[in-house]
Every structure is written in C-alpha cells, then in structure tokens.
Write a structure and sequence with these properties.
The complex is a heterotrimer of chains A (about 120), B (about 170) and C (about 700). Chain A has about 120 residues and is of the alpha/beta class. Chain A is built from 5 helices and 5 strands. In chain A, helix 1 crosses helix 5, helix 2 runs parallel beside helix 3 and helix 3 packs parallel to helix 4. In chain C, a hairpin with a 3-residue loop joins strand 15 and strand 16. In chain C, about 35% of the residues are buried. In chain C, the strands form 5 sheets. Chain C has a 6-stranded mixed sheet. A 5-stranded mixed sheet of chain C has the order 6-8-9-11-10. Classes of the chains: A alpha/beta (about 120), B mainly beta (about 170), C alpha+beta (about 700).
Chain lengths: ~120, ~170, ~700
Amino acid sequence: MARILTVDDSSSMRQMVSFALSSAGHQVVEAVDGVDGLNKAKSQTFDCVITDVNMPNKDGISLIKDLRALPNYKFIPLLMLTTESGADKKQAGKAAGATGWIVKPFNPDQLLKTVQKVLG
Amino acid sequence: MADTIQLLSFSLANEQYAVNILNVQEIRSLEPVTRIPNAPVHEKGVLNLRGVIVPIIDLREKFSLPRLTYNALTVVVVLQCQLQDTHRVMGMIVDSVSDVVDVDSALIQKTPGFGDKVNTDYIKGLASSDEHMLMLLDVEKLMNLNPIEEQTGFNENRAHGTGGQS
Amino acid sequence: MAIDLAQFHQVFFEESFEGLDVMESGLLAIDCNEPVDLEDINTIFRAAHSIKGGSGTFGFHRVSEFTHGLETLLDQMRSGQRQPDQRVVDCLLGSVDCLRTMLEAMQQGDNANDADVARYQAAIDAILDQQNAPVSSAEEPAAHLPPAEAVNSAVESPSSGWRIAFSPRAQLLQRGNDPVRIFRELDELGELEVAPDFIGLPEFGEFDPEICYLSWRLELAGTVDRSALEDVFAWVEDDCDFAIQPLGAAQSCTDVSPQVSPEPSAESEAVAPATDAPPAKDTSDVDVAKVKTVKAKADKPKSAATIRVDTQKIDHLINMVGELVITQSMLGMLGENFTLDKLDALQNGLAQLERHTRELQESVMSVRMMPISFVFGRFPRLVHDLSAQLGKKIELKLIGEQTEVDKTVVELIADPLVHLVRNSLDHGIETSVERVNAGKSETGQLILEAYQRSGQIIIEVKDDGRGLNADKLRAKAIEKNLIDPQQQLTQQQIYELIFAPGFSTAEALTDISGRGVGMDVVRRNIQSLGGSIHIDSEQGQGTRIAIHLPLTLAILDGQSVAVGHETYIIPLNAIIESINVDDSKLNRVAGVGETFKLREEYLPIVRLQRVFAISGAKASKLSEGLVVVVEGPEGRCGLFVDDLLGQQQVVIKSLDANYRPVEGISGATILGDGSVALILDIPGLLRLSVREQYG
C-alpha cells in the first residue's frame, strides 16, 4: 500500500521492521545509515520514513533535517526510533522536523499501528 | 519378552567366540598389510579399506595363542564401534567365521575364571547356541588401542631426555 | 497478527558479537594519558546502543538492562561529561566480556551467569554514582515513562469524558503531523465530536496551503484515561496549544492545570526515588575491575561448522569444475571406440586430466584458507589484560596477519599460541625495573609473526625478555630424573627439555601459565597438525619459538624410499639432496650417535632399518645404500635407505583415526596400487634414533 524507507545500521532491526511492514502489504526499502538513507530518499519517493537516531556517517536527526529541506518531503511523516531515555533526542528530533517517535524497544505490532496511524 | 540380539560367531583355536552383529562392519579376506614399526606383535599393521586406514590385529596373538600361517582362506572380521564420540574401525584376523545366531540377551552369563588360556579381560559373557558355548567379546575393550606402555610394559619414556639432535 | 521475532535472533546475535568486538578494540585503543577522540568513543557508544536496542526489541531484557548502564557511561564519555580513566575502561572491558558470555549463553538457550552480571552491574552503577552527572534524562533508569506523562502523575480518575481545546501552530503541519490523524486516534478512544473554529482563516486569496489556520473544540465522551489522551498529543504538544478539561459532573477536586506541557522540575521529582543509592560498595568498583580474572578467553571454540568464502574463489572453482567436465567427456568419447592409433590423444587427455584435477584441488584447498588474523585477533586483549595483571609494560606487535592458513590450523593453533604467549609474558619478559637495570627499555616487546616459506607456514613467538637459562633448565631436568647427570647435552638439546612432560622452571606455578597445560601438550597439539616446534634463545636477550606447519594439511609431495620390503614416504620439501656416503666418513659424536661429514657439517645418520626394526634390509654398509639428506626444523640429518623409488603427490591420511600416533611417522597415504605407505616425521625419527643408539 505505502512505500516506506527504513534507515538503521542494525541489520536485525532493519529486517524486523521490513518484515513487519511488508507483511501488512507495504513496500519497504532499507538503508544502512543517514547517507544511504538520504540518497535513497532523493532518488525514490516514499510515503513515510522511519529512521534510527544513532548511526555512523550521518545520524537520524541530521537525516531528518536534510529530508525536510527537500520539497518532496516537506510534509511526509518522518519518524524517529529512539530509546526511552532520550528526551533531549526527541527535542532535537522535533527541532529538526521529525513528525514523531517510536520508543525502543517496540514490538512489530506497535510499529505497524503507529505507521498505519500516520499514513492515514 | 526377551531381548533378542544377534551374534556373529567365529572360531579361534577350536574355541567358539562371538561379537554383537551390530559391531560387525564387514567380513573380508586378508589383504596385504603395511607394517607399523615398533608395534606390539599382535598388531600386524594397517590396510586400506575403501580409502580408510584400518589397523589389523591377529586375535590369536592377542590372546597369546599360537599363530597360524595366513592363506587365501584367512578371514578378517572388520569391527566397528563408537569410542569417545567417533566411529572407529578395526579388523581382526580369525580362523573362520561360523554363523549368525539369535540369542536371548537375558540368558547371557557372566564369565567364570578360565585360567590363563584366554584373556578374560576381553570377554563380556557367555552365550549358548545349539550345543556351543560362545564367548562374547567386549568389542569396545578390544578396539581401545591403549598406548603401548600399558599393553606390553615397554616404557617409551626413557630417562634420556626427549630431544634428539637438533 | 503476531510476528515471530525468533527468525531475527541469529542475525541479532551475529551483529551483537561484531558490535562487542568493535567495543573491545575501541576500548583497548583508549590511552588514558592522551586526550581522547570523542568520535572514537561515539563509535563504542553506538555499538552498545545498538545492542541495547536490539536486545530490548527481541526480548532479551536481561541484556538490555545490563547494556543500559554501559550505554549511559559511554554517553557521558562521548559528550565530554566524563573523562575516561583506566578504572572505567577496565570496568567497561570486563563488562564487554560479561555481555559476550551472556549473549553466548542466550544463543545456546542457556541462562546467563547471574552472579557475574550482578557484579558488573554493581560496578557500573557505582561508577555512575560517583560523578555528579547532571540529572539529565540520561539518568532515568527505571522511569519507563513517555515524557509527557512524567509530570502529572497525579493520577486522575477517568471521568466521563474530556473537553479539549486544540489550536495547532504552523509547525505542526510542517512536521508531517495532521490534525485529522489526531482526531481519528481520539475517535478510537471514545466518541468524538469536533467543532472547528474558523476565526483564524484569512481571505481565500491569502491562503497558504502549508499553514494551519483552524483550531478546534473537541469533546470526547467515554471513560478515557487522561494519560491515554495525552499520548495522542504526545508528538504535537510543542506545536500547538491545547487544554484538557474533564467533561461534566464526575470531576475530582484536583486542580487541573490547563497547560499540559512537561515541567522539567517535576521530572526530577519522579527521578529522585529511582536513583536511590544502590548498595554502596565502597571499594568494590576498584576491586571488580581488577578481580576480573584474566579468563581463558581463548577457550570458546567458535562454531566451526561454517566458513565465509570470497565469491571469487567460488567462481574460480566453478570454472575448474567446468574444465574437468570437458576433459572427462573427451576421455569418455576416446574410450568408446578406442584404437591404438588414438594412444597419443589418450595420453594428452590424461595429462590434461591430471592438470585440471590438480588445479581443482588447489582451488578447493584455498577455500579453506583463512588469514591468521583470525587467531592473532585475540592477542591484543590478552596481552593488555595479562600485562596489567602482571604489572609489566609490554608492547605487542603482530606481523603477517594476512598470511593464509588452513581453517583447521586456525582452530587448533590458538590454544598452543595462547600458552606460548602466556609463558613469554609470565616468565620471559621482565618487570620494568629489571629491564632498566639490565640496560633494556622499560617496555618489553612481544612479536607474533606469521609467514610462508618453502611450502610451510611458520609462526613465531618472539620476546626480548630474559631468555632461557640453560644451566637452570639442566638442573631442573636432573632433579626431575628426566636426564642422566652424566649425560652431555648440547644447548639446543637442553632447551628441548622444556617439552618433556611435567617440566616447569617457574618457582611458583603461577595462575597464568602453570595450569598443568604443559609444553609437551603444546608440542603434541602442533604435531597433530603435522607440524613441529623449535626453540631458540639467548640468555638475557630473549627467546624465539617457531612453529612450522604444513601449508596444506591434506596433500603432500612425497619421495618414496625402500628399506627392505617396506616403502616409506619422505616429504619432498624436506629433502635437500640424496647422496652416496662412504663408510669412512662415519663418526660418532657424543650424545648424538652416528654422524657423517657433509662439506663442513657433521650430520646425524638415522638408520631406518634399525629405528623401525625392519627385516630384510638390503644395505648394511652406508655405501650400499643411499643417504637422503633432509631438513627438519631443528636442523639436518641423513636418512639411510636402500633405494629411492618414485615421487608422487599423496593424500595424507591420519593414523590417529583408527589407530594411534606413532613416533617417527606423521601419517599414512594410499599409493596408486591401493597399498598403504607411511609418511616419515623427521624430528620424531631423530628422537627415535638417539634413543635407539643410547638405549
């Protein structure tokens, strides 16, 4: 149904997110860090982006900031995966333009629900 | 109600012996054997069994019985067992192979002392079949090729240092 | 729909182990005396963070809890709040070990060792408490609360509904949030009525579609928790004005503040109880960091069932097989209607077959080859821990890490190498004080080097320590009745005594190297790989131990020799030359036995006929047979045989599988005629020879 970009340097997390969302019929593309994510976002269109925060080469917050600067992604839901202890990260994420966050650890059903919510 | 096991019986110096058929991989005629230097006299050497190096022992000599000359009719019973998680194989030279017999495992008796005619260490028990008494061999014991010292008392660790000229 | 997360576990474990390696090498690289690169710490932090996230997601909560402390500590360090010191680094290193063990246990389906985990947890907690890190949210351990909720923990009893005034600001839309979505969510909680307020709406022509001009008054009927309500607005609370009031009669007397924005001061209240002083272990944090015994990290054999292979190697293999198939079908065709005039073609075909088979064989061998860095990789950590434990300054150098060796070698050489390194650090390298007094540099040097030479892999363990004391060794050997006091031994032979079972010169068997795993076991391990070990030393200067291993474990180029009716194989790369020696050249050298003079050297003679008690030998005088000069790791010698037979490549078969190791024999092989031939082991032969002559 929707095209979703998932950005995370952890292979197991990417696989899990991919699996959860594609089982619900969404098309999922994976990126391994912020640079990879930005490149893919530029060359393809997505209805939603889910990104981890802590990644090498370009972190999630920087990615979100750069995505918001792209005309195609001005209003697209951009979600951060963050740990519960990172309140300052949430602030920074919001400042960068994040739509919201998903708190880690989460289970796939929670993720799916949240994504369905933002996709409307 | 009995557990029937199958035994392969064979003869050695007019005595009847047997091994559990599950321990028998195959029966072959004797082929040329490559001698292993400095081995005990009953260990004749090794041969090639479809790519696997298999030691051959002369059971008569192992039991201190007089040796027979080998000829085209000499038979090798290739034994197999699991020792310490590995599958091991060994061939033993016998006089001739007799039969496969069914035996009730409950009827296998413990061995009384035989004197020194046969090494009773390797006998697990006595089974009877028809008119014969079969001496059941302990294959695991037989196949456990202990370090040479333990078998013949030959001490490898002489007090001369372990280093040769280097 | 429940998704089975177990399918991702294996990947999680693998990437976590890799992450732990990253953490370990990162931590080892921290020099506390130098300013620390925060980016390096960030790398370590990220690895910990990933493990924590993954373990929580996949249900390994124990791991997640434990990693949380590590992550917090690393977070402080990466933001510059905390300076790394040796104690903290050591504690972190120990925790990495603990984590690794935990993950391994969980991978096997076992339980983690709670005692260890608790100990490290306490140590980390103690360190965290010591420094007054600002009460940032990084320190909320147990408060699993979404932030908006942290404040009004004044639990409101669910009323019959709520009235919400909701006024989004411009940013709300720009962050990808949508009021309609919020309404939908609210609608799931109860019955929602929405009344828009058009006050802010400008003239049509002035509309900016990217700005939200509307506000709403909402009424949500139903038994809804305030917290559930607040969750809906969690993402947008900063981007809008909203106020919540309970609907209707059932309202509590508590003052409901219209501003539901999080107040940081209230947050610290919530936090305070959680940071109750953990059982104050006074000196425990220091002890724990030291007490972590230098575990035998080398013990865990990594699962040997799989191997990573370069796809190029696989492609090459496929090509080889293709060629082989072509050759085979060509030979098949030849064979169908064979006539003697096709003999040449047949011979060509067979030669081609031999070539392709050999190439295929070499390619397959190379698949099993891995760089020895797989083995060397454990040593930086080991040396780091050991030198700390021994209080010595030691620098480790690794040379030739890319040297490729067979996978089996990688698996089996680790233990012997660890033992040798431990010996070197424990007995070889002196303390800084001793070294300085001896005119050496403070820091001892340990070198692990690997290289290939003439068909062998050589691995060397070298140190610049105190070297071997031949007199002491000799005295010890006499004391242990390993040698005869009268016996003359060369210095080399005395060094070799170290390999005698039960030999140890350490005054006290230290924990490190004296665990009953003697040098004799080391040598046996190496011999079981078809290799040999050689010691060289200079008192006061250092010691060098060289391990020689065959390049490929399974194939050998051999020279067949005849002694009597028996055929033996000598490894071709050990042979220097074959000569005819006149008996007049024979000598006897004390302690060695028969020797002959070759150019300027006296080389021992090994009479195979005697050493192997072979009957029917043709030659008894040297001149009647041949002397094959061979080189072993300890030097050269001459093997006295009747005749040279052919040369061929042989497949090495183990004697151990169904028989037992035989001294002087390294393995067996099956010749072209199906018979078995034994392969000679030079060092073993020499030993046998000496014993036989002095026996």
